[in-house]
């Protein structure tokens, strides 16, 4: 059974940093791209970015709203994906979801339960 | 404003069929067969219901079906059940730098 568990969310002041982790199990982590999405309170879903598998260079892509501030990385030996968030803004407040991502079909097949990040002074 | 346009709400009675539309452009929905649909119950994570326009993941009832015509994709739910009441989001790959776009979501109410 595929499981994705996010951690690291919490309350942080504007301008500060936070790192989210996503621990995966139930599939060969290194073979897949991983993606992060977010959902602001009462709002719709927004793609944040993804990281390709090492077989496809392990490269990353980001939404314009977070490019230059957020960084996605992965540790295949631990089956963990990370989302490093710097220079946080109040508009980054959201539930952040980690997903197993199919680059070939551009869809998120499995989602974690989400972790809430609140950016407030 | 979302890149893809969905109706804010739809409703139907148990046993009926409903269709949710998702309108984009030739740069996203119309240009690629990479439309997916997600179901989200309140306080829960989204769940993939349809991928690549019309494919159902294992475990999704065949009451759920997807299609596309031009720049508009559709999700049809037949034989509505109470547990289908949820928010539904469409998503598509896009050739713009955004790469992945979503609709604003549609709230399905089962009367």
Would you mind describing this structure in some detail?
The complex is a heterodimer of chains A (121) and B (111). Helix content of chain A is 0%, strand content 53%. Chain A is an all-beta fold and 121 residues long. In chain A, the strands form 2 sheets. In chain A, strands 2, 4, 5, 6, 9, 10 and 11 form a 7-stranded mixed sheet that branches. Chain A has a 4-stranded antiparallel sheet with strand order 1-3-8-7, with no helix packed on it. Chain A is globular. By secondary structure, chain B is mainly beta. Chains A and B meet through strand 5 and strand 10 of A and strand 3, strand 7 and strand 8 of B.
Structural class of chain B: mainly beta
Mean pLDDT of chain A: 96
Instruction: Tell me, rounded to a whole number, the average pLDDT of chain B.
Output: 96
Oligomer: heterodimer
Largest sheet geometry of chain B:
6 strands, mixed
Radius of gyration of chain A: 13 Å
Give the N-terminus to C-terminus distance of chain A in angstroms.
40 Å
| Overall outline of chain B | globular
Biggest sheet descriptor of chain A: 7 strands, mixed
Helix content class of chain A? under 10%
Percent of residues in β-strands of chain A: over 45%
Descriptors for this entry?
heterodimer; A: 121 residues; mainly beta; seven-stranded mixed beta sheet; four-stranded antiparallel beta sheet; globular; B: 111 residues; six-stranded mixed beta sheet; three-stranded antiparallel beta sheet; 9 strands; 43% strand
């Amino acid at each position: 059974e595929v499981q994705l568990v996010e951690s690291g969310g919490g309350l942080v002041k504007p301008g500060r940093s936070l790192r989210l982790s996503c621990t995966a199990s139930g599939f060969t982590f290194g073979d897949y791209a991983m993606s992060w999405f977010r959902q602001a309170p009462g709002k719709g879903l927004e793609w944040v970015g993804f990281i390709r598998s090492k077989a496809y260079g392990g490269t990353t892509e980001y939404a314009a709203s977070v490019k230059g501030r957020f960084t996605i990385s992965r540790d295949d030996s631990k089956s963990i994906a990370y989302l490093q968030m710097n220079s946080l803004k109040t508009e980054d407040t959201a539930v952040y979801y980690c997903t197993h991502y199919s680059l070939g079909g551009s869809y998120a097949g499995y989602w974690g339960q989400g972790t809430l990040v609140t950016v407030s002074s | 404003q979302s890149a893809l346009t969905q109706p804010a709400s739809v409703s139907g009675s148990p046993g009926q069929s409903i269709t949710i539309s998702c309108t984009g452009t030739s740069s996203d929905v119309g240009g690629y067969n990479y439309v997916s649909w997600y179901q989200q119950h309140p306080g829960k994570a989204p769940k993939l219901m349809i991928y690549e326009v019309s494919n159902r993941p294992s475990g999704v009832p065949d009451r759920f079906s997807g299609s596309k015509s031009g720049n508009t994709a559709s999700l049809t739910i037949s034989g509505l059940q109470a547990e289908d009441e949820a928010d539904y989001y469409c998503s598509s790959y896009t050739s713009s730098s955004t790469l992945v776009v979503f609709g604003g979501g549609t709230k399905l109410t089962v009367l």
